[in-house]
Design goal:
6 helices; Tick-borne Encephalitis virus Glycoprotein, domain 1; alpha+beta; 3 domains; 389 residues
Length: 389
């Protein structure tokens, strides 16, 4: 049984089948981006083991096609087993071994990028200092007992993965239980009209009785923005404390009393705290003469890192990111026209531990193919000389 499995996974036919499925997957996944959007299509088609389908409104789904993780995983196992099965360390096959190792490194690096990479943003005005970056798509539920804008707040943060309708959250740091009654990926809030809106309010506490919640379809376009909202219920030892309507549009969060303390609850972009601070000192925005096309825009920032004793200034501009302690800071956005006091900048912060693997893999594949080509070329030239002699 073991020999048969090894033979199956090391066969060249399996390689061809995986490559064929991969071509079809790339074609279908690219087409799906038109209706599903870039991020959702990537998650559904390429960051999954199976593509699931079910009738509209049905509570069941069936796997109809292998996903990117499954195809890539089988192809990775196929390359490794085939390499072990046919491995013979000779200089004549060194180029082939190096090429195979490079392809394996590319597959492993792509998997590491999908599993470990993270993108976030830092938006700040001129002179402002930040010690955290924020997710552009994920939102967290937070409870605070201090000022919400302080960088060193002691907060209890509930990650986006737990914000599902019907979920119940308990924490040793919270003296109450949190129940997620509803969660909307995209929504809008407006003030309640006394004569027009006669239905029940979305929540009983905070701004809930004065607001109207309007669920919206998810915006899947590249430049679109989804504004989520949630309705939560807090329960203490004595029973329910009421329900709250939460949204990133509610500035500053909402306060309530419990256990002799003033608590603040908010729904905000998920934060990733840094062990150092970064301050925006100045901005520069240049356009090509006679046009509105950006030519160059850059931010000058100051990094203060007490752990390293650093206090230095750095310029971040187009095609010149800052790489610092495992993160890469790219110049992302900046307003072309603004008063000096209203200047702001946005940096994209990328964490990708496997960012070197594509370069190393391509170098190994190229070196292996070049070695094998030159080896055959030298052999061909040598044989030709013998024939001429």
């Amino acid at each position: 049984m073991g020999k048969q499995l090894f033979k199956f996974f090391s066969s060249l036919r399996l390689t061809v089948v995986c490559l064929a499925f991969g071509v079809v997957l790339v074609f279908l996944g690219t087409l799906a981006q038109v209706n599903e959007g870039l991020y959702q299509a990537q998650t559904r088609w390429f960051r999954s083991f199976f593509i699931w389908w079910g009738p509209a409104g049905a509570g069941w789904h069936l796997p109809v096609f292998p996903g990117g993780y499954l195809i890539g995983g089988i192809l990775l196992v196929n390359l490794i087993t085939a390499h072990i099965h046919r491995f013979q360390f000779t200089w004549k096959k060194f180029g082939i071994h190096l090429t195979h190792a490079g392809i394996i490194l590319l597959l492993v690096g792509q998997l590491a990028t999908d599993m470990l990479s993270r993108e976030s943003e830092i938006r700040f005005n001129k002179g402002e200092t930040k010690q955290y970056s924020e997710s552009a798509r994920g939102h967290e539920l937070v409870f605070l007992t201090d000022a919400p804008d302080a960088a060193d707040d002691q907060v209890v943060a509930i990650p986006p993965s737990l914000l599902k309708p019907g979920g119940e959250i308990r924490s040793d740091n919270l003296p109450f239980t949190v129940r997620i009654q509803n969660y909307y990926i995209n929504s809008r809030l407006r003030e309640r009209g006394p004569m027009v809106d006669t239905g029940p309010p979305p929540a009983t506490q905070g701004i809930g009785p004065q607001a109207v919640l309007m669920p919206m379809p998810e915006d899947r376009s590249m430049d679109g923005t989804n504004i989520p909202s949630a309705v939560i219920e807090l329960t203490g030892p004595q029973g329910s404390l009421g329900t709250w309507l939460l949204s990133p549009d509610i500035s500053g969060g909402q306060d309530f009393m419990f256990g002799g303390k003033v608590w603040r609850v908010a729904l905000r972009p998920q934060r990733y705290y840094l062990p150092y601070t970064i301050q925006l000192l100045s901005t520069k925005f240049d356009v090509y003469p006679g046009t509105d096309t950006p030519k160059d825009y850059q931010s000058r920032v100051r990094i203060e890192n007490p752990q390293r004793g650093e206090n230095r200034e750095v310029d971040i501009y187009m095609n010149n990111p800052l790489r610092y302690q495992g993160l890469t800071f790219y110049q992302f956005q900046m307003p072309p026209i603004a008063a000096e006091s209203e200047r702001w900048s946005a940096l994209e912060v990328v964490r990708n531990p496997g960012w070197l693997t594509p370069y190393a893999g391509c170098v190994m594949v190229g070196a292996g193919m070049a070695y094998q080509f030159l080896l055959h070329l030298i052999g061909f030239v040598a044989k030709r000389r013998k024939v001429q002699v």
